[in-house]
Amino acid sequence: MRSHEFEKILLQKVLQHIDVGIHVIDSNGKTVFYNETMAKLEGIEREKAMNRQLLEIFPSLNENTSTLLSVIKTGESIINRTQTYLNYKGQKITTVNTTIPINRDNTILGALEIAKNVTNIQKLSEQLVDLQIELIGDNKKDIPSISNHYVFDHIIGRNEEFLKAIDIARKAKDSSSSVLIFGETGSGKELFAQSIHYDGLRKSKPFIGQNCAAFPESLLESILFGTVRGSFTGAVDRPGLFEQANGGTILLDEVNSMGMSLQAKLLRVLQEGYIRRVGGLKDIPIDVRIIATTNEEPLESVSKGTIRKDLYYRLNVVSIRVPPLRERRDDIKLLCEHFIKHYNRKLNKDVWMISKDLMQEFMKHSWQGNVRELENLIEGAMNYISNDEHVLKKEHFYGFVPSIMDKEPNYDELIHSHKPLPDIILNVEKSLIQDALDQAAYNISESARLLGIKRQTLQHKIKKYRIPL
């Protein structure tokens, strides 16, 4: 078999089984490629779609409502458009579609559409917004909330730099200025954000948090700003989180994960105090305090291009750096005592302390997962300790112990182990991946960034080395 024939077969296989739907039509609107994923998504057999006119397959569409036909007509790409519609089987689905023209010598030969199924994410986002509306309604009726509200008294620490951060946050609690909190994953950024709100003048109003990395940009825009009926296929009138947080505070976690176009829209909110729903024409005035967080130095995000410079200056009115646990080792013992007391009540235990040798190990550890890592380890150990024991020891940490103690891979030992070079390389690669995962608290995107590889590549290697997540 010739190499170009093999490449053609390989490309066909890849396109057929890739996890996004692909639909290609020619300039006359006839389907010339339709992969299995798209067939499953739209509820039609692939063979029934091939070599048929698009409007014959989907009679409910027309030149104005079909993105494929629209692109052929205009020659302009449509990027990341959200569509909610009933597929061939009558199932309601939501996709994020990118449609581009296929050109040669300034002649449009057809159009290619790539569709990503986000139906489950869309359902979750709608449930999130509806639940938020319900919770705000309950609070207005003075029904007690079951969620945890943190105030400054809940923040544990005596470290000098940490106390400075608390002092800045306390001074800012009664203003309406935007706040930018930065610190590593697990360092306690949300505790600061909630404390600013619930100890401040807005405490009787809503506090709503949203992780900006949790949803695709097109869905995140709908979640934050709301939608009007007809703004995209399947859209309904729905208020966004900004409207729901009116009078209160909105927390935008991992704001550096937000796309540039959405950051521009957020900048307008900060500058003008208005929001506009997706697809809407009406400007809606809002009074919302914005607290944003990042897991890296904000200026680093600006230099990398993940945060707009103008947005950075608008957000960074009050700047709070939450130091990582390894920079506040003098707080480790205090935090251990706090978590032991907490889990004694929760797990009905009677633990008094942590053994001296284990505490020494804790004081040497780098704590890449920060306070969250420490709490999770103590909670796990207290599930293993018996009711008649009062001191947490190494043996209570079982499988956790090797992962919490800093152990650099012995490269010298590997080199002189007389193993084949491929085996040594595999061992080193696995060790580096494990180190990156530990450092990023098992955040896949952050771990991939530290390693300088793509997220998909890292996921493949995690599966290859059977690294537990």
Automatic annotation (TrEMBL):
All copies of domain Sigma-54 factor interaction, residue ranges: 155-383
Keywords for this protein: ATP-binding, Nucleotide-binding, Transcription, Transcription regulation
Domain of life, per lineage: Bacteria
GO BP: regulation of DNA-templated transcription
GO molecular function: ATP binding; sequence-specific DNA binding
Signal sequence residues: none
Matching PROSITE patterns: PAS, SIGMA54_INTERACT_1, SIGMA54_INTERACT_2, SIGMA54_INTERACT_4
Location of the PAS domain: 7-55
NCBIfam families named in the record: sensory_box (TIGR00229)
Name the record gives this protein: Arginine utilization regulatory protein
Organism of this sequence: Proteiniborus ethanoligenes
